[in-house]
Predict the 3D structure of the following.
Amino acid sequence: MIHNFKPDYSRLPRELNLLLDILKMKDDQKINQESLLNIHWDSFLKLARHHRIYPVIYPKIKNVGQENIPEFVIQTLKNDYKKNIFQMMYLSAEMESINELFNQSDVRLLFLKGPTLAVDLYGDISLRTSSDLDVLVPIHDLEKVDKLLLEKGYEKDDYILSVLNDWKWRHHHLTYFDQSKGIKLEIHWRLNPGPGIEPRFEDLWARKRICEKFDSPLFVLGREDLFLFLVSHGARHGWSRLRWLMDIHQILLKELDWKMLKNLLEKYHCTHLAGQALTLASSLLNTPINTKLQHIIRGNRPAKLAQITMFYLERLVNLHTEPLPTDIANYHSRYLYSIKSITQKIFYFLNFLYPYHSDSMIMPLPKGLHFLYFPLRPFLWIWRKSKRQALS
């Protein structure tokens, strides 16, 4: 390690420290017996599920035969492991069905997560969890995709409220559900929510790869683009689940074009986020850092960005469960601002000058007059803020 980040493991739950020890174990290595003392095993299982790492934990424990781990813990992990295999096989079948449907309609698609990511990074669908499917398509194909999915039996979750087409860059995906199959499908037209600069679909398509081990050709992101996506996605969620750091660990064991990766990180203002990810993975998971990437983790900022994520690991924070507790919501809001580059902060402030759908709720105008929301935006913002303070 060449960074100066030193996690304060004493602030982490003992059960989480044990999980980290197991994740770092070599195939034939035994668990340090001191790590097994005073463990609350129900909490251990809860954390393994929260961090979505039980598919990696169970094989490690099973292979070394730990007699000091209660049998019910081993059995619970085994059951979760088996359930995940069936879940991933189920998703794989739907994934191939979606791929065939889109291909027949000449819709290009790139699979972002799900079974393809498990195969790509871990070599086996059983070693990673996934609760849904994530697909990236060109934005101009969204109407065609919507029709295809509705005809297939999916229902659209119309949660996006928009004015002046701000959905195109403020949001990044639409959500569909097949209630009969219990499957959620996210259709992305961006990798991450805006505002921000990111690769165009055409560029990602030009660098795509074929994911092996499936019956039909499934296209996924190029490995350098995937690293960029995993870094930005994990950072946006505060690395609050160890699974996302495990993904970073796994991809760094693969062959990467380091020059291309460096250029992508710089072009899309993610070098500091990569530094955060590498610092955390190196410190918590003993991830080896290639010498060509070590410049990224030098200096104070990667260590500082890594340090502020410990808030999420010290607590069992689930950012997908809303509404968030006030203290966590406020911390996360400050965190998201702190991880922005200077350019991203400029975009962040310019974003406030563009009308929001809430402006149209305060002062409804005919569609032909929506352009007036631009000059009215400061006044509507002040009015809404003053009203909120008065209610408080």
User: Anything to note?
Assistant: The longest helix spans residues 71-104. Strands lie at 110-111, 132-136, 155-157, 173-178, 183-188, 209-211, 218-220. The chain has a mean pLDDT of 92.
